[in-house]
Amino acid sequence: MQHLRDIPTQEIRPGFFGKLLHGDASTLAVWDIRKGSRLPEHHHIHEQITYVLEGELEMVIGGEKMLLTAGCVHVIPSNTPHSATALTDVKVIDSFAPARDDYR
Q1: Is residue 90 a contact partner of residue 57, using CB atoms and an 8 Å limit?
Q2: Terminus-to-terminus CA distance in the chain, angstroms?
Q3: In terms of Cα–Cα distance, which of 104, 94, 95, 92 is closest to 33?
Q4: What is the pTM of this model?
Q5: Which of 28, 40, 51, 70 has the fewest Cβ atoms surrounding its Cβ within 10 A?
Q6: Tens-place pLDDT, residues 54-85
Q7: What ranges in the chain are assigned the alpha helix state H?
Q8: C-beta separation of 49 from 75 below 8 A
Q9: Which CATH class is domain 4-103?
Q10: Residues 52 and 32: beta-carbon distance below 8 Å
Q11: Looking at residue 4, what DSSP letter applies?
């Protein structure tokens, strides 16, 4: 068992601070994203489920612009282009399958 506070925080991209927990087949990421931080459009083989805990995150997923606020959850299928901009400070949980070996 681990406590979230004991997992080191990594700045994966400018303004994106994550605590990452890896299993054999999945990765769980708990993010603190700073207001104004942007994640450029990208895609990956991983299915991603995004759950916004706090704040406002504008995303473009598969060409559709949407505003995710506290309580919103969205499934991003494998290889779907997506981008994000933090309109406020944001807390997000992302789950990825398969595991994000690039985040290890």
Answers
A1: yes
A2: 19
A3: 92
A4: 0.95
A5: 40
A6: 999 999 999 999 999 999 999 999 999 999 99
A7: none
A8: yes
A9: mainly beta
A10: no
A11: G
